[in-house]
Design brief:
Layout: H1 10-30, H2 62-77, H3 86-100, H4 108-123, H5 131-144, H6 157-161, H7 169-180, H8 187-206, H9 220-234, H10 247-259, H11 268-283, H12 289-304, H13 311-316, E1 318-319, E2 323-324, H14 325-336
Antiparallel strand pairs: 1-2
Helix pairs in contact: 1-8, 1-11, 1-12, 1-14, 2-3, 2-14, 3-5, 4-5, 7-8, 8-12, 9-10, 10-11, 10-12, 11-12
Length: 347
């Protein structure tokens, strides 16, 4: 991976942390409303905990847990923090499997891939599956259910792109696709992850929100369809996309939440209000609310930085594997460390 000699600025580092903290915040905010119909505008949205699975206030779900594994694999991989190498991919596979044994919440398609990967590993005499087992399982599940394109990879694509903020865009795309294809190989899932991941990268680097920036990286025959999907989202509200367990529905619902609060204001307290409004709109969407709000938070957080997340929300954040806000922030700092040349500066 080639990185810029200039390194990330302090503002870019804050925004990189913001992508992960924003995603975790949306995840925890949306968790209590999961599996339920859309929330009326007259009802308040809060970091209340509860819901069908009995989450604690501020507790994130599988969305953030799986992203944390990707970030930790990046740190463990090598000095280059390259998620494309075998050791990083095997780390992700092993830790996702270990996490899956105790989680109360895991997506249907992801769960089937994990079980199939574990079966393949045992045939080879291994207790825990490796990356090759996950890839084979993902392909097998896709062959059995070719119409299934769940949103489980989109909720963690922000983690896959973080090590590649200053790398050629081709490297970022390769990494996004490599992590996506461990569980999801439907073209819609891969293309959604590329678009959202590159939008997060662009937001961290520039502070701008532009979900169309990755269109040139898609197959030419897919671009017009995605342009139409994006246009549709901009004319809608998140709650209009009822099939938000589908990756396209989740993408559109999250983009509707962000485009609904655009343009982004410059004043910091107005930016905080904007982030809150986007996450609340996502949490109101109904059904897979934690994932829609997580995806929304990854991009709005990447544009505004982690300090745009209200302090009272940051203080309550926690979840698997026993992390709170400080550990989450520290993990991101380790991921981006190779891109920071003045490491003593305050992020």
């Amino acid at each position: 991976m080639n990185t810029s000699e200039a390194g990330l600025s302090a503002a870019q580092r804050q925004r990189a942390i913001g992508a992960v903290v924003g995603a975790a915040t949306g995840d925890a905010l949306g968790a209590p409303y999961e599996f339920q119909p859309p929330v009326l505008d007259s009802e308040e949205i809060g970091m209340i905990g509860g819901g069908v699975l009995g989450w604690q206030p501020g507790e994130w779900t599988d969305d953030t847990a799986m992203a944390i594994v990707v970030l930790e694999a990046s740190v463990a991989a090598s000095d280059r923090h390259d998620l494309r190498i075998d050791t990083a991919q095997d780390h992700i596979a092993r830790e996702w499997y270990s996490w899956s044994l105790g989680t109360p919440d895991i997506g249907t398609l992801t769960s089937q891939v994990v079980r199939t990967a574990a079966d393949l590993a045992r045939v080879d005499g291994h207790y825990a599956p490796r990356a090759k087992d996950f890839r084979a399982a993902a392909a097998s599940v896709y062959e059995e259910m070719p119409a299934s394109a769940g949103n489980g990879s989109l909720m963690r694509t922000h983690a896959a792109v973080l090590p590649y903020l200053l790398s050629p865009v081709e490297d970022a795309v390769d990494a996004i696709e490599a992590v996506c294809c461990l569980t999801h190989v439907h073209p819609d899932t891969i293309e959604a992850c590329v678009l959202w991941g590159l939008a997060v990268r662009h937001a961290i680097l520039t502070g701008e929100v532009d979900v169309r920036v990755g269109l040139p990286e898609l197959p030419e025959e897919s671009r017009q369809q995605w342009i139409e999907r994006i246009d549709e989202a901009e004319e809608s509200t998140p709650a209009m996309f009822r099939r938000n367990g589908w990756v396209v529905g989740a993408f559109q619902a999250a983009w509707a939440a962000i485009s609904g609060v655009s343009p982004i204001p410059e004043e910091k307290f107005a930016q905080r209000d904007t982030l809150v409004a986007a996450l609340e709109a996502a949490a109101r969407s109904g059904y897979d609310t934690d994932t829609v709000a997580c995806i929304t938070g990854s991009l709005i957080g990447a544009a505004l930085g982690y300090k745009a997340v209200p302090p009272e929300w940051r203080r309550t954040l926690f979840g698997w594997p026993g992390y709170e806000m400080d550990e989450l922030k520290g993990l991101v700092e380790r991921v981006i460390a190779p891109m920071v040349h003045d490491a003593g500066a305050d992020a």
